[in-house]
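Course assignment 3, question 2. Fill in each field.
Student: A.L.
Task: Predict the tertiary structure for the chain below.
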Amino acid sequence: MGRDKALLELAGESMIVRTARLLRSVTGLPTIIGSPETYQRLGLRAIRDDWPGAGPLGGIATALRASEAAWNLIVACDLPYLTKEWLAFLIDRAQRSKADAVLPMSAGGAEPLCAMYNKTCEAPVWLALDRGVRKVTDGLAHLQVEYLEPSEWKVFDSDGLLFKNMNSARDYEEAKRLLKPQMNADKH
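Answer field:
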């Protein structure tokens, strides 16, 4: 995108603030993995990534290290179509699971950046990073993962947009267009 996706605005609110507000509605105050200087100015709690340059797996490892909770909701900031109802379902499902992680599946495969991770994932993920692993699903290879099939989450997203992220200017323009009716309704 050529710029920080977290700071892109939808209806006058940055993606990171929008995502944090959504997470707060289901989990309490979220922790952002990134520049404390950038995100604290926005009123958000943020910590530095323990694994800069290691991609999402490094961010997951950092979040698990910083957390004291048994289960942790890990969400990317560039998923504009997430809903409170879906996240509440995902959290409930994980809390009843015996797995180490609960990941939804989409047509593109596992969705590790809108998933639940048990604290039991922390040490194996750090070991995987030490071995040079960077792909999230490879980092979970030795853990018990429960996958949620589309039939389980489609009730929350009949349009198939739930896990569509913003990777291009076109995706961003599409999100602004598709979310405009919702954002106008939120203002009333």
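Instructor remarks: DSSP finds eight helices and nine strands in the chain. The CA atoms of residues 20 and 30 lie 6 Å apart.
Grade: pending
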